[in-house]
Amino acid sequence: MAAAAVSEAWPELELAERERRRELLLTGPGLEERVRAAGGQLPPRLFTLPLLHYLEVSGCGSLRAPGPGLAQGLPQLHSLVLRRNALGPGLSPELGPLPALRVLDLSGNALEALPPGQGLGPAEPPGLPQLQSLNLSGNRLRELPADLARCAPRLQSLNLTGNCLDSFPAELFRPGALPLLSELAAADNCLRELSPDIAHLASLKTLDLSNNQLSEIPAELADCPKLKEINFRGNKLRDKRLEKMVSGCQTRSILEYLRVGGRGGGKGKGRAEGSEKEDGRKKRRERKQRREGGDGEEQDVGDAGRLLLRVLHVSENPAPLTVRVSPEVRDVRPYIVGAVVRGMDLQPGNALKRFLTSQTKLHEDLCEKRTAATLATHELRAVKGPLLYCARPPQDLKIVPLGRKEAKVKELVRQLQLEAEEQRKQKKRQSVSGLHRYLHLLDGNENYPCLVDADGDVISFPPITNSEKTKVKKTTSDLFLEVTSATSLQICKDVMDALILKMAEMNKYTLENKEEGSLSDTEADAVSGQLSDPRTNASAGKDGPSPLVVEQVRVVDLEGSLKLRGR
């Protein structure tokens, strides 16, 4: 009788066990009552599904603790998403060890502390040895566990935004503690001091400490070799010149100011000697060249990019495309970057097919099957700006998906779910293909992210699809590119850089090899009636092939304040 009662209360578990599922989402109106009946914990039967790779339980106000047995029962878990629940004040028992876990999202709970035995896992041996992304934002944490770096030594992204932290543990910044950490976000806390030892984060690329109580920025911050983006806005700095620079988010200027001995760091080791300044400039130029040229194996791609790319900055473009970002995306998919690329030649031979294949490869590799980021490309002529990046209830959204008829997003997702089930049954396998693979990335979201043009049409629905309205064709020469992510701004930038370099390589190959190719009648008509843009021309001129022109896209909030410029 007891087993039958459990099956009746948790039919999802019985289905997952029968079909040997690797992904499981628990959500819906009845979840809160069932969890309350289970004592505020997840049912023990859940931890008898050892094949699970992805588990999400979100938006359940009665879930106070995961419950015992998770670490022992789910050894292959790669992603654990427990956001917007009521976990806290600690985690009892602690989560780890989870040897395969790569993504852990505990955002939007009621966690106050994560002490040994009530935290993420043991430090010796590491409880989360493969963890790459940890999201603890939107909790009530007063301090971080001192052994966090030992528990998760391969951490790459750490989000602590919106807690009550007044300091970082010294162990976090000890030499070699977190050699892979590239993104650290701790905005909207109570931080009073930033240790000079932050310079030991050798891989740090993005640092957001906005809206804290910092009075100084250590000069040693300029010694972080890969740092590209910092945000200290909303702090009352003693150095008023530095505070003015911070308000303008001039990362390069801020780091140079600290590097040459500005008063931003008090006792920092500023380097004001002319020769040392020149050394710093030389190193930055070398790092920039390495970024543009790739890391060794992609050197040819970098050469193509340097030869056939010209960047048009916002200051050089009187009317840049603008993306306005609505605040509600913060809880759904907060990061977006954009760029306009002019002069792409997709008409000859298989150029368009190669372009689309390169996007698929980026989604599989750098975007980690769209779990880290999603890119979309659009026919620029069909894009009506300014654009709005927002989040809305699925029943309020309509889109004409690529290759499909117009549908409400809620109906589209339901149809894709049905197709996925049918695909599983027909092919008698656990996994699915196509768009169906990405449906779980929407699980637990009350609102879905979308990009809306000036006509009110949804042109992009990340991470699922974009619109037929802006579909890229053989005749397309000017494109709008967008990359979005739920986890990291830096991954958006990395994907955008990789895509633009790939486009430069492809365009160079196409122009040099002069592929033959025929167009359909419709496409030929479009070409004959196409007006060339005076800023670019993809065809070879008297002096050889013209470069691709990359235009920066302004990303602003609804009040028009600059959030960032696209690549």
TrEMBL record:
Compositional bias per record (Basic and acidic residues), positions renumbered to this chain: 270-281
Segments of this protein annotated with the region Disordered: 260-300, 513-546
Pfam families for the chain: LRR_4, LRR_8
An annotated GO BP: phenylalanyl-tRNA aminoacylation
Superkingdom of source: Eukaryota
Residue ranges with Polar residues bias: 529-539
Coiled-coil zones: 402-433
GO molecular function: phenylalanine-tRNA ligase activity; RNA binding
Name of the featured protein: Leucine-rich repeat-containing protein 47
Species assigned in the record: Macaca mulatta (Rhesus macaque)
Name of the encoding gene: LRRC47
